[in-house]
Amino acid sequence: MTPIADRAFPEAVIFDFDGVILDSARMKTNAYLDLYELRDPEMQARLRRIVWQNGGLSRVKMLPILERELFGRATGEDGIMELARRYADIVDRRVNDCPLIAGAESLLDQLSGTPCHLVSGTPQETLLGTVRAKGLEHRFVSVTGSPSVKAEVFAAIVAAGSFEAARTLAVGDSLTELDAAQKSGITFVGVVPLDEPNPFPADVPTVNDLFGLAQRL
Ligand SMILES: [Mg+2]
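^ thats the input. predicted complex w/ magnesium ion below
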């Protein structure tokens, strides 16, 4: 399809939250280490790798993967819910202390007038609480957490706004958001901090922070 020259880019932006708007991704990985009280460096490295490979998943989807891949356990729903409750006790207290990603406020200022949506793997009510605590609620047209599935939410945002998918921009720090964007043909930019490994294929454009993204728009 030939882009319509007089339509702006981006027509809309879909942001992930942890690691994209809020500098909370490392804290949330460390919280899994605390949850399991892992002291063995080899186990710590394995956990970090599993969380990194499955970045962007909700806690109730991440925990069965950790149970299986770290400990070889097929933990039932009750066990996962108890782990999720303990995980929430750790992260939901710490998350409000996390700073915004560098450049977040100036990018959102720059995008004022462009519909911005927030889509996260964090439980809906918890996400809304954090967004309000950070004074960000007026920045987003919609805020969607789990149990909604990112790919479905991305598609619904494009459909509801009658946006051209290629002129819609999704910004994420993990493969979950890249997959969700690609399923709808949405343009994607990854956020990869300078001191973290890049999880994305080589042809995916990335920025180190949101100052970097502001320069590209
Ligand atoms: Mg993230």
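The beta strands are 12-15, 116-123, 142-146, 168-172, 187-191, 206-207.
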